[in-house]
């Protein structure tokens, strides 16, 4: 058979049955076009095998007892000719159904179920064919990508999120590291033994950052088994799935020759009559490739890196990720126009950022050739930097909201639709678990969108009666048998919709945490959270009283539930923190709303031993 696959606009099904159940007028449950299905029907196995040889068949529906051959013998004959084509066997025999898949059938379907329900039968074979086609395309794509990777001079690799498994690596590993691909697969940590001892700590720190969700770009030395030392530049990118780094993809390249040229250029740039260490500002010199080759003590002091560490770092690694492209363009401008000026956040060894203004100019040799760029950097006020960061943040929030709305909601809607189809064919508790997972993902998407919108929308304050907004929230939140006590009639100045969202989240938080929790550690994030049993957490709390009261300069929401441990009071407003099975963004949203209003929020223990959230700095509206 050909190894070229594509998902077809129509499916050609070969029906082998002396009492066929499918016809051309069958309708698919999901409203698919009827033209999708093309049928060829025969009542004999021999005729079907001839059709398989002559025609392009996408799938086969066969009875388990044909006039000239048993269903099992027919499947054996099919597999001798085609090992991949999906075969759906119709049977009413439990023994045949039990053995069918292990003997070559792709799936089985009860004949008595299919009688009168040709739509279900047609949909099952369609799903089998589409799955087969998708799998074949994925396999073909992977094979072609592997072939392409083997033609590359760069080292391409994929690790698991915790670096314990090498999922893909091309043979360039053997060229650069002097070790076999098989040895790396057997011991994924083998490459670390080749890294120069001076560089190992930096490499380990970079690996940890990538496992935590950040990209990395660094240079280091490796020593081959024959003693030859080479320079390598590695770029790593985390692949995040449902908040967890599941894979790390990267590319490494041999930069030994470039490093040799840099060393030669640095010698030319380094002149004894240039006392750069006496300059109080940062001094930097770049070679013709834009790589850092010289600096003064002020740069090492400002960044916290040693001279040895700076010598092995890329220029991009000295700046915040959001500024790196702008820095690259500014340096290119210096080569083209002889000078440059730009602002960027310098990234220090401890991960903090400091805003700087950099200027620079092109350096030329006696013969007029370009040696590089040199200049100084001066720390600037935080005001300008914060304004720029705010503008960049709002741009990222716009992009984020767009991605969440389209790229996450659409696949979720498709998954929900497929789940409904599956529930039409099967009644399984596993499908109920899938539905709960879909609902949780949907809630997480809504919470993330709320966070983004709270960060970018303007505040529209007006007088808002607390009693009214709390009573409205009580009607929209699932509170079960919980009881509300209102101890305030105050009117505050606030954005009505955001204040309502604040109370909805605080009330929901109390209701969801109204049962006794048990502790569960989330190993990937290294955090601990308390959860309730599924049977409890899905329902509303019972015998719970929630009180909304007034403070001298604000209000509080308290309950008599299980409370929050004192050592976790500072953590509850962090994104992802949860004491229940919810996504864990509810209190983060509350914190964002409070911050947007210019208020403050703290968590404490209520008089009844539960949780008490106090919001202060609130402006009251007086008559």
Describe it for me?
This protein is of the alpha+beta class and 623 residues long. The protein folds into 5 domains: 10-147, 3-Layer(aba) Sandwich (Rossmann fold), CATH 3.40.50; 152-260, Beta-Lactamase; 284-380, 2-Layer Sandwich (Beta-Lactamase); 385-444; 459-517 and 542-621, Heat Shock Protein 90, CATH 3.30.565.10. Helices cover 41% and strands 26% of the residues. The protein is built from 19 helices and 26 strands. Helix 1 (45-54) runs parallel beside helix 2, helix 16 (466-476) packs across helix 17 (496-512) and helix 17 packs antiparallel against helix 19 (586-597). It is flat. The chain starts with 10 loop residues before the first strand and ends in a 7-residue tail after the last strand.
Short characterization:
With 623 residues, this protein is α+β, with helices and mostly antiparallel strands. It has 19 helices and 26 strands. The strands form seven sheets. It has a five-stranded parallel sheet, with helices on both faces. The chain has a five-stranded antiparallel sheet with strand order 9-8-12-11-10, sandwiched between helices.
């Amino acid at each position: 058979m050909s190894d070229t696959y594509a998902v077809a606009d129509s499916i050609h099904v070969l029906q082998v049955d002396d009492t066929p159940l499918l016809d051309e007028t069958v309708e698919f449950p999901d409203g698919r076009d009827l033209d999708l299905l093309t049928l060829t029907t025969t009542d004999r196995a021999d005729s079907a095998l001839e059709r398989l040889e002559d025609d392009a068949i996408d799938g086969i529906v066969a009875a388990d007892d044909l006039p000239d051959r048993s269903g099992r013998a027919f499947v054996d004959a099919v597999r001798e000719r085609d090992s991949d084509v999906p075969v759906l066997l119709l049977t009413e025999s439990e023994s045949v159904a039990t053995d069918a898949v292990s003997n070559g059938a792709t799936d089985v379907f009860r004949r008595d179920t299919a009688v009168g329900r040709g739509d279900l039968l047609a949909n099952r074979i369609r799903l089998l064919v589409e799955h087969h086609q998708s799998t074949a395309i994925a396999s073909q794509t992977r094979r072609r990508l592997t072939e392409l990777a083997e033609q590359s001079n760069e080292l391409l690799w994929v690790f698991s999120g915790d670096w314990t498994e090498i999922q893909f690596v091309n043979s360039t590993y053997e060229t650069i590291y002097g070790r076999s691909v098989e040895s790396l697969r057997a011991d994924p940590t083998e490459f670390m033994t080749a890294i120069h001892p001076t560089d190992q700590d930096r490499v380990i720190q970079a690996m940890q950052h990538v496992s935590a969700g950040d990209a990395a770009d660094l240079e280091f030395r490796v020593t081959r088994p024959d003693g030859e030392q080479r320079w390598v530049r590695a770029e790593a990118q985390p692949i995040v799935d449902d908040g967890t780094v599941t894979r790390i993809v990267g590319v490494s390249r041999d930069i030994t020759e470039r490093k040799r040229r840099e060393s030669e250029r640095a010698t030319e740039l380094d002149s004894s009559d240039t006392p750069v260490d006496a300059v109080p500002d940062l001094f930097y010199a770049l070679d013709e490739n834009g790589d850092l080759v010289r600096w003064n003590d002020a740069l090492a002091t400002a960044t916290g890196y040693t001279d040895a560490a700076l010598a092995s770092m890329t220029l991009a690694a000295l700046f915040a990720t959001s500024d790196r492209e702008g820095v690259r363009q500014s340096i290119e401008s210096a080569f083209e126009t002889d000078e440059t000026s730009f602002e960027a956040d310098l990234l220090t060894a401890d991960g903090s950022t400091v805003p700087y203004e950099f200027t620079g100019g092109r350096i030329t040799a006696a013969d007029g050739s370009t040696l590089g760029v040199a200049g100084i950097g001066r720390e600037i006020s935080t005001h300008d930097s914060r304004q720029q960061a705010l503008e960049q943040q709002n741009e990222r929030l716009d992009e984020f909201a767009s991605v969440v709305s389209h790229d996450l909601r659409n696949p979720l809607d498709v998954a929900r639709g497929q789940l409904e189809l599956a529930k039409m064919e099967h009644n399984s508790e596993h499908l109920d678990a899938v539905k709960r997972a879909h609902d949780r993902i949907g809630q997480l998407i809504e919470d993330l969108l709320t966070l983004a919108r709270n960060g970018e929308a303007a505040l529209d304050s007006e007088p808002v009666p607390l009693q009214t907004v709390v009573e409205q929230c009580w009607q929209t939140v699932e509170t079960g048998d919980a009881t509300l006590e209102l101890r305030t009639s105050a009117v505050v100045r606030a954005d009505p919709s955001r204040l309502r969202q604040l109370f909805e989240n605080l009330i929901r938080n109390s209701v969801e945490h109204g049962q006794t929790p048990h502790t569960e550690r989330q190993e990937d994030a290294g955090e601990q959270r308390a959860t309730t049993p599924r049977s409890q957490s899905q329902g509303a709390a019972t015998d719970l009283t929630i009180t909304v009261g007034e403070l001298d300069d604000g209000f509080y929401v308290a309950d008599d539930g299980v409370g929050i441990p004192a050592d976790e009071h500072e953590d509850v407003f962090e994104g992802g923190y949860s004491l229940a099975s919810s996504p864990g963004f509810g209190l983060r949203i509350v914190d964002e709303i409070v911050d947007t209003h210019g208020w403050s929020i703290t968590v404490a223990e209520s008089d009844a031993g539960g949780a008490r959230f106090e919001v202060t700095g609130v402006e009251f509206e007086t008559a």
